[in-house]
């Protein structure tokens, strides 16, 4: 029997099928979008069927594409393993793991990547995109990342998430501030302060504003910044005070700042791992997910 298609065409098909994005697939394979499209078209011509349904907004597998998907992955992964078994011959499809995450959690992910992923998959390629909370969610939704690690308190429609941990907020201020000798400060007491806060669209801002609305309190955000590092620098200069997650304050290790707890209410930020709802994880992404939360972890309520 004569095979009328090439392995590179199956690889192209899998890249698009796994990401449901021609642009993301082309980037992963390091080819131009037009070259990727031609490979998929040649495979469709050889199989005499359409593998994808494309609109201006989304890419979906056709019925034939769904039937081919699992078999094509088995074929390519088996051939990759065989080729990798020959000494000195590199795997022609090195597994790639793309992680979108908020910057504050990168330090926690490195040991997992080092010990659980790269040790078991020494030829694996890792891509980390440090993004805002909303950008992290969007990257996973658009299949530009296999998984995301960020905050589960914002807009997570279309995503499945598992909580990794929760943390509270502290009020950071310059040493000598009137609150600096206290253990806790209520959120209402911030009404009389010049508060440095995140921009309106940030995940932290949405979380705080929502909690304050339930208390009937409207905080006055006197200064707004995009990054918490900037807020801490402004607080150090005495420009104002800033509410930040406890871990971010502790990581700053700024000797000129002090922090006190924020209560009434106690607001907790949920940090978790995210994947696209209904989209099976690729093998390497599944290993990463399981290393973080286990295969049977309970999904967080949206």
TrEMBL record:
<dbReference type="Pfam" id="PF03466">
    <property type="entry name" value="LysR_substrate"/>
</dbReference>
<dbReference type="Pfam" id="PF00126">
    <property type="entry name" value="HTH_1"/>
</dbReference>
<protein>
    <recommendedName>
        <fullName>HTH-type transcriptional regulator TtuA</fullName>
    </recommendedName>
</protein>
<dbReference type="GO" id="GO:0003677">
    <property type="term" value="F:DNA binding"/>
</dbReference>
<keyword id="KW-0238">DNA-binding</keyword>
<dbReference type="InterPro" id="IPR036390">
    <property type="entry name" value="WH_DNA-bd_sf"/>
</dbReference>
<comment type="similarity">
    <text>Belongs to the LysR transcriptional regulatory family.</text>
</comment>
<feature type="domain" description="HTH lysR-type">
    <location>
        <begin position="5"/>
        <end position="62"/>
    </location>
</feature>
<dbReference type="GO" id="GO:0005829">
    <property type="term" value="C:cytosol"/>
</dbReference>
<keyword id="KW-0805">Transcription regulation</keyword>
<comment type="function">
    <text>Transcriptional regulator of the ttuABCDE tartrate utilization operon.</text>
</comment>
<dbReference type="GO" id="GO:0003700">
    <property type="term" value="F:DNA-binding transcription factor activity"/>
</dbReference>
<dbReference type="InterPro" id="IPR005119">
    <property type="entry name" value="LysR_subst-bd"/>
</dbReference>
<dbReference type="InterPro" id="IPR000847">
    <property type="entry name" value="LysR_HTH_N"/>
</dbReference>
<keyword id="KW-0804">Transcription</keyword>
<dbReference type="InterPro" id="IPR036388">
    <property type="entry name" value="WH-like_DNA-bd_sf"/>
</dbReference>
<dbReference type="InterPro" id="IPR050950">
    <property type="entry name" value="HTH-type_LysR_regulators"/>
</dbReference>
């Amino acid at each position: 029997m004569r095979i009328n298609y090439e392995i590179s065409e199956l690889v192209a098909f899998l890249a698009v099928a796994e990401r449901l994005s021609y642009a993301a697939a082309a980037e992963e394979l390091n080819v131009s979008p037009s070259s990727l499209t031609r490979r998929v078209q040649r495979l469709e011509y050889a199989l005499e069927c359409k593998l994808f349904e494309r609109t201006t907004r989304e890419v979906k597998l056709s019925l034939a594409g769904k039937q081919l998907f699992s078999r094509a992955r088995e074929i390519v992964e088996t051939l990759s393993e065989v080729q990798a078994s020959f000494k000195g011959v590199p795997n022609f499809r090195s597994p790639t793991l793309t992680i979108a995450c908020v910057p504050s959690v990168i330090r926690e992910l490195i040991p997992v990547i080092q010990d659980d992923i790269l040790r078991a998959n020494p030829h694996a390629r890792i891509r980390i995109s440090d993004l805002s909370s909303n950008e992290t969610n969007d990257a996973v939704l658009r299949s530009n990342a296999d998984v995301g690690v960020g905050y589960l308190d914002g807009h997570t429609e279309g995503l499945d998430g598992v909580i990794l941990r929760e943390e509270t907020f502290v009020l950071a201020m310059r040493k000598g501030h009137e609150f600096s000798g206290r253990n806790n400060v209520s959120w209402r007491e911030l009404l009389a302060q010049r508060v440095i806060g995140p921009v309106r669209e940030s995940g932290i801002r949405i979380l705080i504003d929502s909690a304050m609305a339930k208390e009937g309190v409207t905080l006055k955000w006197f200064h707004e910044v995009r990054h918490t590092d900037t807020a801490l620098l402004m607080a150090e200069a005495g420009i104002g005070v800033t509410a930040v997650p406890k871990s971010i304050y502790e990581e700053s290790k700024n000797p000129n700042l002090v922090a006190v707890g924020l209560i009434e209410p106690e607001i907790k930020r949920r940090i978790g791992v995210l994947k696209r709802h209904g989209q099976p994880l690729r093998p390497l992404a599944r290993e990463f997910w399981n290393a973080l939360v286990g295969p049977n972890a309970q999904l967080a309520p949206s």
